[in-house]
Every structure is written in structure tokens, then in C-alpha cells.
């Protein structure tokens, strides 16, 4: 028979306090203690137990704070050392003043091609007299029948020779003016003129069998176009285009 107050499972001291835990036993915890969970209840997930020793002071860096390098663009760097990108500090494109010699070569070659082409047209039409024209037209099969069907004869064609010569001269002058305009525009750095010169040079290849002078004109035109597309010429034309886009004229 046990005496009240002397429970063998939980013995107490005479003053009512529990005895010290024996070897192999865990000390009971007071559920009313501040900051302690009830006995047998694990701490909540995510909660941190208080550090019984307190927060240690942070040791100052022995090297100090390294100085920040000044920004070359006059702006403060981002946190972490990244520089702020420059805002509007790019130099505006300038109008180029030095024209490459390739463009000068292209100018003179295209201009010479226009002169030779005009001379070739004029000499060919004025070198054709009435007798040779009559012989050439007569050699064409069915030409007299076609002229008769239209109410004309070879004599009527011979009477139109001065008019034909005048028309050919006008066409030669217009052709020379077009060649000169394209040559001057390419020399100034026009990409549109360079494209037109390329197209005309390709079309002129259809006249390879029109005589020696026309062959020389075609070769000169092709040489002028090739020099207009070389790298120095292309760089000059691109710089001119960028400067004009920026407002220069």
C-alpha cells in the first residue's frame, strides 16, 4: 500500500518539487515556461529556436569598403557593379569628305562609255548614204512588197533619210546626257544611280554585235559599274546615305 504523495512513478521531494531525473530519464518540462513548447510536442515547422547565446556581433571587414570606380558616362552604376548603359552619347554620323579613287574611275569610265556610244550612233547613221541604204533595203526579202502594201516605195524612204539622221542625233544626245547624269550621281555617292547604271550595263550586252565602237562603249560601261561596287565605293556611298539620314545634305 502506497502513501499519498509518495508515488513511485513520480517521486517528489518534501517541499513538493519533483526529484532530479534519474540516469536514462528525460527531465519534465514546464508547459508554462515562456518560449518552450508543451512537453512532448515538436516545434512547429519553419519556426526558429532562440539562440541561447545571443547574436554574435558582426566583425568589420579588415580591408574596408573598396572605392567605387567613377562611371565613364557620368552615371552611377547599378547595384552589383554593372554600369548604366550610355544614353544618347553616340556620335552623329558625319558627311564624308574624301571620295575614293574607285568612284572617280567609275565616273570617267561611265562618262567615256556614253561619249563612245553617242559617236557610234551618229557615225553609223551618217555613214549610211542613199545608195547604200537603197541596196540594204532591197536586199531584205519582201521589203518592196511591204512598202508597196503600205503605199510607199524605196524613193520615199530615201527622202526620209535626213529626218532619220536628225532623230538618231537627238537620241544620241539624250543617251549621252543620261550617261553623264548617272556618272555624276555615282560620283556624289548615289546608290540609286549605281543601281540604274548596273541595269543599263546589263541591257547594253544585247548590242555586242553592233560594231567596234559599241563594243568599246559596252566594255567601258561594265568597268565603270564594277568600280562603283568595289568596297571603298560602297563604304563611301553607305556613309553618305547615313549622313543624309541624320540631316546632312
UniProtKB/TrEMBL annotation:
Entry's transmembrane regions: 107-131, 164-186, 198-230
Composition bias, Low complexity: 35-46
Composition-biased stretches (Pro residues): 53-70
Polar residues: compositionally biased ranges: 7-16
Statement: the UniProt record of this protein carries the keyword Membrane: yes
Alphabetically ordered keywords of this record: Membrane, Transmembrane, Transmembrane helix
Region entry Disordered, spans: 1-98
Recorded coiled-coil stretches: none
Name the UniProt record assigns to this protein: DUF4064 domain-containing protein
Organism annotation: Paeniglutamicibacter gangotriensis
Amino acid at each position: 500500500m502506497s502513501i499519498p504523495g509518495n508515488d513511485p512513478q513520480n517521486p517528489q521531494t518534501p517541499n513538493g518539487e519533483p526529484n532530479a531525473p534519474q540516469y536514462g530519464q528525460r527531465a519534465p518540462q514546464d508547459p508554462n515556461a515562456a518560449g518552450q513548447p508543451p512537453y512532448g510536442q515538436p516545434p512547429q515547422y519553419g519556426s526558429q529556436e532562440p539562440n541561447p547565446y545571443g547574436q554574435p556581433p558582426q566583425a568589420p571587414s579588415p580591408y574596408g569598403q573598396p572605392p567605387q570606380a567613377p562611371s565613364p558616362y557620368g552615371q552611377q552604376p547599378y547595384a552589383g557593379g554593372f554600369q548604366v548603359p550610355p544614353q544618347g552619347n553616340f556620335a552623329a554620323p558625319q558627311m564624308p569628305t574624301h571620295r575614293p579613287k574607285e568612284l572617280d574611275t567609275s565616273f570617267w569610265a561611265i562618262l567615256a562609255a556614253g561619249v563612245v556610244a553617242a559617236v557610234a550612233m551618229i557615225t553609223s547613221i551618217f555613214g549610211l548614204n542613199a545608195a547604200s541604204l537603197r541596196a540594204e533595203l532591197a536586199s531584205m526579202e519582201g521589203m518592196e512588197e511591204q512598202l508597196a502594201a503600205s503605199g510607199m516605195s524605196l524613193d520615199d524612204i530615201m527622202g526620209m533619210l535626213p529626218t532619220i539622221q536628225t532623230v538618231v542625233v537627238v537620241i544620241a544626245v539624250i543617251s549621252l546626257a543620261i550617261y553623264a547624269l548617272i556618272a555624276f550621281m555615282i560620283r556624289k555617292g548615289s546608290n540609286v544611280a549605281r543601281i540604274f547604271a548596273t541595269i543599263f550595263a546589263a541591257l547594253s550586252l544585247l548590242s555586242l554585235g553592233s560594231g567596234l565602237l559599241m563594243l568599246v562603249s559596252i566594255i567601258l560601261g561594265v568597268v565603270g559599274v564594277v568600280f562603283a561596287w568595289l568596297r571603298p565605293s560602297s563604304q563611301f556611298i553607305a556613309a553618305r546615305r547615313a549622313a543624309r539620314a541624320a540631316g546632312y545634305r
